[in-house]
From TrEMBL:
Residues 7-323 form the FAD/NAD(P)-binding domain. It holds the Pfam family Pyr_redox_dim. Belongs to the class-I pyridine nucleotide-disulfide oxidoreductase family. It is an enzyme of class 1 (oxidoreductase). This is Dihydrolipoyl dehydrogenase family protein. It comes from Streptomyces noboritoensis. Its EC number is 1.-.-.-. Keywords: FAD, Flavoprotein, NAD, Oxidoreductase. The keyword Transmembrane does not apply. Residues 361-467 form the Pyridine nucleotide-disulphide oxidoreductase dimerisation domain. The keyword Membrane does not apply. Its cofactor is FAD. GO terms for molecular function: oxidoreductase activity. InterPro entries: Class-I_Pyr_Nuc-Dis_Oxidored, FAD/NAD-bd_sf, FAD/NAD-binding_dom, FAD/NAD-linked_Rdtase_dimer_sf, Pyr_nuc-diS_OxRdtase, Pyr_nucl-diS_OxRdtase_dimer.
Amino acid sequence: MTEALEYDVVVLGAGPVGENVADRVRAAGLSAAVVESELVGGECSYWACMPSKALLRPVIARSDARKVPGLRGSVASPLDVPAVLAHRDEYVSHWKDDGQVRWLEGIGAHLYRGHGRLYGTRKVSVTSPEGEHHVLTARHAVAVCTGSRAVVPDLPGIADARPWTSREATSAQEVPGRLVVVGGGVVGVEMATAWQAFGAQVTVLVRGDGLLPKMEPFAGELVAEALKEAGASVRTNVSVSEVVRDGGTGPVTVVLDDGGRIEADEILFATGRAPRTDDIGLDTIGMDPGSWLPVDDSCRVAGSDWLYAVGDVNHRVLLTHQGKYQARIAGAAIAARAAKVPLLETDPWGAHAATADRAAVPQVVFTDPEAASAGLTLAEAEAAGHRVRAVDYDLGGVAGAGLYADGYRGRARMVVDLDREVLLGVTFVGPGVGELIHSATIAIAGEVPIGRLWHAVPAYPTISEVWLRLLEAYRDQ
């Protein structure tokens, strides 16, 4: 039995991005259907942002407390790992989505559970787990918000090795005795930080020269130094050529390209993401299944007047908060086009342009120390042709940092556009710096002149006083 239904907007995927698209078009008075094959709330809520930070928070809090006189003796004992894992389970609602479903229904969106596929122009077919079939027609737009999945390399022995991806790393119920982490990006370093603190012996294997390659080089250097001090092994310029787990049980042997071998109980591959577009019907509209979907600044797919791709799937920025930002932009654009607004605000920083994806992306890596950045690195700014100056400052020299932790180690950098005297990028590394990065994001997105930033006085004694020190260093160079 096939039921045909019509909505103004059909959203494929009920993660944070799809939820936000639905919320914005509903707020504009449009009807919306949302299709989800797994849990409403998506990767972020159950296998990424939320569980990983629930695991990392006690690790970082204990580390900070150990650097404060009068506290360090009180936190000398190991973490209560069962309590940490139980809190993580509570934070992800034990992998049940009842609360998120209630929210979606509360905004007036219609949820369809099952596998959704494009079915030609403005149509989506949905097959439910019970075998029911619906064909949803969108009057105005279909938004693909299906996200991305972890990529596991096609190596000899990989199938029998049963490797972890980010999903297993954030949802595991037991601490492995030995864990090999392949990859030095955000997932790799965050999970290495967490599981090392829980008692695993962690080895990080990186094909390149260092950790966090998309940030300023000193970020990866400081994080690697801290991981080694915590007892982890960090090996660079090395690749995995084979993994062996006999019969799919017992320890795994990791064979390296240099002939070396490492024995472990689990292996985590944190080596990249691929779009979840392989089975969503792209072939029915003349596109290649499994491809990233190129879009304009309003997140409309190139060459289409009805198809939008929002979040990871468009490959602009693979971060939840940027996907939600894109969703707000896309929702506004869909509503404006539905209302036949003659001219959308697509100029830089306009209401219908995701300009921040190129100019002011913030990110926090919740390691110990934290690494936080917004905008461009020095190398990216130079490659883009800007005439720039990098200004560095030792965060340990800031009064508030010394109060935050004895022996505070960290570093700050701002990248200044010398022609316009505005900031293009800022990076902080050190304990507690994640809460500093929004000020940098505002300065970059607002294109606040250096002369005006002089009048944004940081409170004393806080770590944010580093802003004054950076500006003084820029003035005195």
